[in-house]
């Protein structure tokens, strides 16, 4: 379909149903207008022709903080903020990207996919994705993409992974007949971040964005992680998930992030293993003095967090399946406390007077303590970015006013879990 036909498609009944599922019934018309503006922008930049629409969500991590890179377990969900794009083949060796949100426009030649010396930025990430497809034996070709995003940037809701999975969906649809699995998407995104950003990422962000819905993932076998969708509606419990931006991004924190998996792996190394999933908590405790001397105390604490967090994921999944929402909330709090005290990813030691996350958590804990309802925790990679609060709906407006008075207006976002991951919207309408 050309641009006009695709715009007309947005008026159909299937589009109405899909947009209600993606964004909520009250957001449908506004989102359709967003897509129409995107299509118009594409036509102004690249002309008409056969185009397709794509969407890829950000993600929320509910439990399993920093466990995926050591082949642990997570509970996560895709959210109703997304990266959307229009794309079409251009029958050349050039991939042309326009990112409206970030004012970026660049071209990547498929014949030159070497990373830049600095290994940073969107262009290197795109090169890494394209190279990842090639290395995995999939087809790639030249295409035009016109993209916008409302996923909060540098804030722990995976704006980068949403972008990566959007491009994966485009390449899968345009050049591979839709045959590539979401697990393969995640591995390609991880490859791009590992080799073209020198970022020691796991698979959590990419999997949560690609698969969609509320999911639990067991990364024990990372080449084939076990993914299970959890059928649970937070709205049915009259609770909302609130993400609070604490005012600082992740741009200069790569060393902090990379140290987390490295230190956990150092503990495993003592036992001749590579990952913490290959050892037990009892192993560490039974050999504590020697492990502390070999790996260091923070490494030991981070490994203990890993073991306990895996248990929490299992408890929380079971609680959701059995409708024990109070147990679920208790373990959100426990997960947050472990991240703060054992994992120690609520601020960076290189700038210990800057503690936006811990300030936001302290204020939220005071609020929850007063109301005696709700839970909160650091969200995502940590060190900077956002926190998550799970609150009864009747407290949300009061909490938002309270936290934004302290941290600034427009910093609190009310989220919902959307049922779809990275998709070709055109093929679902």
Automatic annotation (TrEMBL):
It comes from the Bacteria. Residues 42-88 form the Galactokinase N-terminal domain. SUPFAM superfamilies: GHMP Kinase, C-terminal domain, Ribosomal protein S5 domain 2-like. Keywords: ATP-binding, Kinase, Nucleotide-binding, Transferase. GO terms for molecular function: ATP binding; galactokinase activity. The keyword ATP-binding applies. Transmembrane segments: none annotated. GO terms for cellular component: cytosol. Gene3D superfamilies: 3.30.230.10, GHMP kinase, C-terminal domain. The keyword Nucleotide-binding applies. It holds the Pfam family GHMP_kinases_N. Belongs to the GHMP kinase family. GalK subfamily. This is Galactokinase. It comes from Candidatus Lachnoclostridium stercorigallinarum. The lineage of its organism: Bacteria, Bacillati, Bacillota, Clostridia, Lachnospirales.
């Amino acid at each position: 379909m050309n641009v006009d036909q695709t715009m007309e498609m947005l008026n159909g009944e299937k589009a109405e149903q899909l947009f209600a599922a993606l964004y909520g019934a009250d957001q449908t018309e506004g989102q359709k207008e967003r897509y129409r503006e995107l299509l118009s922008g594409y036509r102004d930049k690249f002309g008409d022709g056969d185009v397709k629409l794509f969407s890829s969500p950000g993600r929320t991590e509910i439990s399993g903080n920093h466990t995926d890179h050591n082949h642990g377990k997570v509970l996560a969900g895709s959210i109703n903020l997304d990266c959307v794009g229009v794309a079409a083949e251009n029958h050349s060796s050039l991939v042309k990207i326009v990112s409206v949100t970030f004012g970026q426009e660049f071209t990547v030649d498929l014949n030159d996919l070497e990373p830049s010396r600095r290994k940073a930025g969107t262009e290197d990430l795109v090169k890494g994705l394209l190279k990842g497809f090639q290395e995995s034996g999939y087809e790639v070709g030249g295409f035009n993409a016109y993209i916008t995003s409302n996923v909060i940037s540098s804030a722990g809701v995976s704006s980068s992974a949403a972008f990566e999975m959007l491009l994966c969906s485009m390449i899968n649809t345009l050049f591979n007949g839709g045959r590539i699995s979401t697990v393969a998407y995640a591995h390609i995104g991880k490859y791009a971040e590992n080799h073209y950003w020198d970022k020691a990422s796991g698979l959590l962000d990419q999997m949560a964005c690609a698969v969609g819905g509320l999911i639990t993932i067991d990364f024990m076998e990372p080449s084939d992680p076990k993914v299970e969708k959890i059928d649970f509606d937070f709205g049915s419990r009259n609770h909302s998930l609130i993400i609070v931006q604490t005012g600082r991004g992740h741009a200069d924190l790569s060393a902090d992030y990379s140290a987390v998996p490295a230190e956990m792996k150092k503990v495993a190394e003592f036992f001749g293993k590579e990952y913490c999933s290959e050892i037990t908590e009892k192993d560490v405790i039974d050999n504590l003095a020697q492990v502390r001397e070999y790996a260091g105390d923070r490494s030991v604490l981070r490994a203990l967090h890993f073991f306990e967090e895996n248990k929490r994921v299992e408890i929380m999944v079971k609680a959701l399946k059995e409708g024990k929402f109070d147990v679920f909330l208790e373990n959100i709090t426990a997960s947050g406390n472990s991240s703060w005290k054992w994992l120690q990813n609520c601020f960076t030691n290189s700038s210990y007077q800057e503690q936006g996350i811990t300030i936001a958590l302290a204020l939220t804990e005071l609020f929850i303590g007063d109301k005696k309802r709700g839970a909160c925790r650091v969200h995502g990679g940590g060190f900077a970015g956002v926190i998550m609060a799970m609150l009864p709906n009747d407290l949300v407006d009061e909490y938002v006013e309270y936290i934004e008075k302290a941290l600034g207006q427009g910093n609190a976002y009310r989220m919902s879990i959307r049922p779809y991951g990275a998709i070709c919207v055109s093929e679902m309408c």
